[in-house]
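User: Okay, second chain of the day. Same drill as before: sequence in, structure tokens out.
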Amino acid sequence: MAISPGPAEAAHVDAWLTDMDGVLVHEEQAIPGAAEFIDTLRRLDLRFQVLTNNSIYTPRDLRARLLGSGIDVPEECIFTSALATASFLREQRPGGTAYVIGEAGLTTALYEAGYTLGSREPDYVVLGETRTYSFEAITRAIRLIEGGARFIATNPDVSGPSTEGTLPATGSVAALITAATGRQPYYVGKPNPLMMRTALNRIDAHSEHTVMVGDRMDTDVISGLEAGLRTVLVLTGSTSAAAVETFPYRPTRVADSIADVVEVVEERRRSD
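Assistant: Same drill. Structure tokens below.
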């Protein structure tokens, strides 16, 4: 499927948001056109953020991983669900406390947001992604929530890919905790448009002049739509061309891959 236009795009574009997995990379492998897309944004001096619901890694970690795949993304241009969660909690309850199930990407973000981490009457239980979910940690989280801690999760993704097959992710563990406590978490990451708005604020961009590129209709496209952005769906990830028509909403454009979006960036720049 060649890139297909959607509704008229009158307003100029001066900023881009893009998902990472399924758009720029598969596991550790760059998707053809990804490096060129980032290089084009930088060459044209366009503001951008690479977004990911993965809360395991810090932006510095992710920059190194992307660079190993041949994609040069500055650290400050990477925005994770962990950073979005830390920003949200800092605004909601400055200097608060949290019991965290997660890895360095999440704990570092919360520390830098001024949070104290521990299990003594915390304001929040914050659940992120990890490769080492433990029964003891989940049990403690359940008891803290029963004791009055507010329940936050970085993202609702129920599974993730690995070279060995599907892995349980944050949403699956959140469902377990909800079943035990009757308490639903507040999910900060995609498809919550809050993550999009926070990313826009980081680069001082306006939704009317920003495009979101993603590979999932149920997270990337809908969160971009609800945040007021134009959207491009690429077909190199989770959503197939056939599946697009099953959703009650549409992306602004559909493209085979990020390589086609490079042409769109150039085209939009010339028209602006």
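The first strand starts at residue 15 and ends at 19.

User: Thanks, on to the next one.
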